[in-house]
Amino acid sequence: MMKRLLALSVLSAAVATAGFASSASAMWTFSPAGPVTLSSPIDPGTGSPIPLQLFKGIPVSCNISGSGNIASGLASVTSLSLVPGSFFCFAISFAGLPYDLEPAGGVSLTSVTLKDVTVTAITGNCRGDLTGDFDQATGIITFNGATIPSDPPGGADCVVTGPVATSPAISYTIP
């Protein structure tokens, strides 16, 4: 009897945990479904891309290129690279993709977080979440001095400033 009660308790906990996990992933819905292109947006005044400003010991200005996907309402970034602008753009890369894209804190309609971003650079590595402002109308993410912690801890954080455009423009809802 005791073994059955223990088995039932374990099964109940597993079902409750599975239910919680599936409801957590359904707390927001990104759209439109399908592939997404990430890039430096074009400045309407100059017709030139607006680069990201990256800093980890030295300032670097680079355009960004990447791709992502939206499936079952969940968004992920599947590739990211920096297009030469400054000389050191070639020496910065992203590892550990894909990165999940979520509303900041799971509740914000005005900011998003790329989860567990890994940056490798000649001045050291960084790893952690990267949060930026999000414009629902344009699908543009803007980083305003957003930081990714140094990896290993103790070094300078990576600091990111500038916009990233999505095409098609993505948006999301939170019920």
Unreliable runs, pLDDT <50, ≥5 residues? 1-24
The span between the termini is 43 Å
Number-wise, the strands total: 13
Average pLDDT value? 87
- Based on secondary structure, the structural category is mainly beta
SSE arrangement, N to C? HEEEEEEEEEEEEE
Contiguous helical run count:
1
Query: Can you summarize the main beta sheet?
Result: 11 strands, antiparallel
CATH class of the largest domain: Mainly Beta
Rounded to the nearest angstrom, the radius of gyration is: 19 Å
Shape verdict: globular
Strand proportion: over 45%
Provide the CATH topology of the largest domain: Porin
Number of domains: 2
CATH architecture of the largest domain: Beta Barrel
Q: Could you estimate the helical fraction of the residues in percent?
A: 10-25%
Write up this protein.
The chain is mostly beta strands. Strands 2, 3, 4, 5, 6, 7, 8, 9, 10, 11 and 12 form an 11-stranded antiparallel sheet that branches. Strands 1-13 form a two-stranded antiparallel ribbon. It is globular. The protein starts with a helix and ends with a strand. Mean pLDDT is 87; it is low at 1-24. 14% of the residues lie in helices and 52% in strands. Strand 9 (124-135) and strand 10 form a beta hairpin. The chain folds into 2 domains: 1-28; 31-170, Porin, CATH 2.40.160. This is Protein activator of alkane oxidation PraB. Residues 1-26 form the signal peptide. Keywords: Signal.
